[in-house]
Amino acid sequence: MSFPAGRILTDTERRWAFWALLAPTVAAVALPVTGLAETLPAGVRAALLLGSPTLAVVPTVILLGAIGIWLRLHVYSGTARIERVVALGAAAPTLLALIWSVRQTTDAPAPVDGIAVATAALLVCALGLVLDTVGARDTASNTQGRTDRLALEAGAGLILVPGTLLTLAAGSPLAWLVLLLVGATALVTAIAPDGLFGSRSPRRHLGWLALLLGTAGLWVGLNRVGTEAPEPYVLPVAGMLLVLAVLIRRFGRIPRAAAASPAAALLTLAGLLVAIVPLALASASGSPARPIVMAAACGVLLLGSAAARWGPSRSAYLAAAWTSGAIGLLVTSIVQLMRVLGAPGAPDARLEC
Fold it and tell me: Based on CB atoms within 10 Å of each CB, which residue in 21, 34, 48, 175 is the most buried?
């Protein structure tokens, strides 16, 4: 029904056929044919060609082909706009059905289903980004590209949100990877045609959601393998915050030579504090090397930032480094003092000199 009007059917006939065939098409793809076939006798199943995992791939491939035809048609000047949105919104569920059908042919373990959901959503959102970016170059196609992207992302969200929640609720061993893929999907969704760090689009704020999901995936994975040291938990997160600060300073809307970016300065402060404060608190126990390293690093930040030349383009970043170094030294000193006072017996030998 996606071919241009006038060649086979009129425009009205195409729209009527689309809605009339929509429910049977969804049933043909979503119906568990393989499971239902197992209830039939072997002879009947063989005669009807049911129960074959390979056969379950055919309907989804055909439906994806039809969606691809809708995608290539420029029908927003006609009357089939709603039908196009519905067809593109079905892209993510159909791709997921295809991946599940292929999984049945390979006997992959059940935990892979969560990865399949996140992968399908990621691919569809990436396609939406491409369409939106290409459409932004042409004024006539700009609205169509944005609408196509929203339709694709709505279909992706339809499978991604419940799929992720079910994966986490089931305690899947691959939940950390699912969270990372969902974070990547949020990151792709956050990118507008004018970029991410210098964008004025509201979707840029989804980048923070991507950061939270990536952090959650990292922590879930570390907890699953029994990691107890705080460094693997906090240092990668601090590194991501500092990288974001550098990227915002480099590609943001504020000229680098004229003034410092407030967002980049806050991210610099946050990244340094995330790296320093938890490790300073963890120095209350364990090896004495940790508080020594923390004190040295904080001293370098404090003295280095104070000795540097302050100016409009760097003062906010130097202030962030000085503040984080001072807070780190203060927390480390308090923690070590409490450690000494709380230790039984004689005072710690490290303070005798």
Answer: 175
